[in-house]
Design a protein that fits this description.
Shape: globular
Number of domains: 2
Number of strands: 17
Number of helices: 15
Helix content: 25-40%
Oligomer: single chain
Largest sheet: 7 strands, mixed
Distance between the termini: 57 Å
Strand content: 25-35%
CATH superfamily of the largest domain: Dihydrodipicolinate Reductase, domain 2
């Protein structure tokens, strides 16, 4: 007889409520208690649930045999997940920031305690990217992983490029629909995509890289001039997470806007959808696409993880046990578009070469080759000067 799953749920925001609604229609598990900051705020939303603000009420409940963590606070999420694993309780979490900063430790605890930690919901919403990397693309011939990892930014960019919607209007609509994080800079500045990329790199290449080492730049400083440039070149701006293994066993990781041409798979990924292209030495390119934002798409991934534990499923981290794990590097030079203010901005980036240049009152740009490591070094100063940079592939 299968053991009944009694869930201790942390968080009742967009995804937590989505899970609650899914379980009403698919009653494969029971939410025994919910821990939130303000129980009285949520009680009317689900009168039949027991709400509390005390973590101990969850962990001291002997009926609870499963923890689902879906809160915004990464530090609190880490304490919850760590405590659950140490108590040998299986955990499903969606907190990508917490995982990106603590994954090696949590993997070790999971192994020591012989329990499971699953988090497909942390990367790409409804797309089972992690499960596919673990089970299908589990050979050591992976070349690259590239994709739209943030549905909120993609929704905003789709409205801008497809409908000509003003940036602020598109931003307001994304907020109204619940696509943006409570702190929108996590989406717009690329941090959300960064945390997902760190997690995916572990499963794709076996390499863990601390988030602070990876160049990350978002669309916060994108202007009408940048949009006009993309349209004139018949390209679209997409915020892309990119991981690539080079022939010398270096692993390049970055998150930044890219000017994509029509022949790229992810050019046509629109609205809140995510799209990921996985490339292998023999199997070529595989393209996964699905909803990457919203309560029900993400909570469906949470439910899938919950169900997987009924069959004792857990990640095996096969790539981390390979003999030739690639090592992280920022040592690569590539072509970018830079919209800048004055000559000191060009000196800041230290271009290896410049192939195109435009200078007029109020709008200046160059196209040229720059080192990824240099972009990382001056990232904060670029943001302070409100520069906009985008990778500009040749094809």
């Amino acid at each position: 007889m299968e053991k009944k799953i009694n869930i201790g749920l942390f968080g009742f925001g967009t995804v937590g409520r989505g899970l609650y609604e899914l379980l009403r229609d698919v009653p494969v598990a029971r939410i025994a208690r919910v821990c939130v900051r303000c129980p009285e705020k949520h009680q009317h939303e689900a009168p039949e649930l027991i709400f509390t603000s005390d973590h101990d009420d969850i962990f001291n409940d002997k009926d609870i045999n499963f923890i689902v963590e879906l809160i915004d606070d990464a530090d609190a999420a880490y304490r919850i997940v760590r405590r659950a694993l140490l108590n040998r309780l299986p955990v499903v979490t969606g907190n990508k920031k917490m995982l990106a900063r603590h994954l090696p430790e949590l993997i070790d605890i999971q192994k020591q305690q012989n329990t499971s930690l699953l988090y497909d919901a942390s990367a790409c919403g409804s797309i089972p990217v992690i499960r596919n990397l673990e089970e299908y693309y589990d050979n050591d011939l992976q070349i690259s992983l590239k994709g739209i990892l943030n549905g909120s930014c993609n929704f905003i960019l789709s409205k801008i490029f497809n409908e000509g919607m003003p940036r602020e209007e598109a931003l307001a609509l994304a907020r109204k629909l619940g696509f943006l994080e409570s702190d929108p800079t996590l989406d717009l500045d690329g941090w959300d995509s960064l945390y997902k990329l760190v997690i995916l790199a572990v499963h794709a290449f076996g390499t863990y890289v601390e988030p602070d080492k990876i160049f990350t730049y978002g669309i916060t400083h994108m202007t009408d001039g940048d949009i006009r440039f993309a349209n004139e070149k018949e390209r679209r701006i997409k915020l892309i997470g990119h991981a690539e293994k080079l022939p010398d066993n270096k692993l390049i990781l970055c998150v930044m806007p890219q000017l994509l041409s029509r022949n790229k798979y992810i050019y046509g990924v629109e609205d809140e959808f995510n799209g990921v292209v996985i490339k292998g030495f023999f199997y070529g390119k595989q393209f996964l696409v699905g909803r990457g934002a919203g309560g029900h798409p993400t909570s469906s991934a949470v439910l899938s993880d919950i169900m997987a534990t009924r069959y004792d499923y857990r990640y095996r981290y096969k790539r981390m046990h390979c003999n030739d794990i690639p090592h992280f590097s920022n040592d690569i030079t590539f072509r970018v578009y830079l919209r800048y203010n004055d000559e000191s901005d060009l000196q800041l980036l230290d271009f290896a070469e410049i192939s195109e240049r435009y200078d007029s009152p109020g709008y200046r740009y160059v196209v040229g080759r720059v080192r990824l490591g240099r972009l990382h070094e001056v990232r904060d100063e670029m943001a302070r000067r409100k520069l906009f940079v985008a990778a500009y592939p040749n094809d």
